[in-house]
Amino acid sequence: MDDHRLRPGPDAARAFRFGMIAGGAVGVVCLAALYWTGALSLLALGYVAVALFPVYLIVVAVLLSRWLGYDKDATSLRRVYKTKQ
User: 27 lies in which domain range?
Assistant: First the structure.
């Protein structure tokens, strides 16, 4: 059976970009709120911003890519070259 998957279009690209910007903004607002309320010290805020915030952005990107159809699996792979016969 030949399974053709539709590629995500320009609307998906715009949604991904908007989702990444919104996810980053939400993360920064949460960090600022935690620092403002005193839940994070300046040193802890620096650690979270440098070590954990990029991981959070990767998780946001993975979730958005799965939701918008950018995910790939083994059926999406094809040979790079043809074998000689």
Answer: 10-68
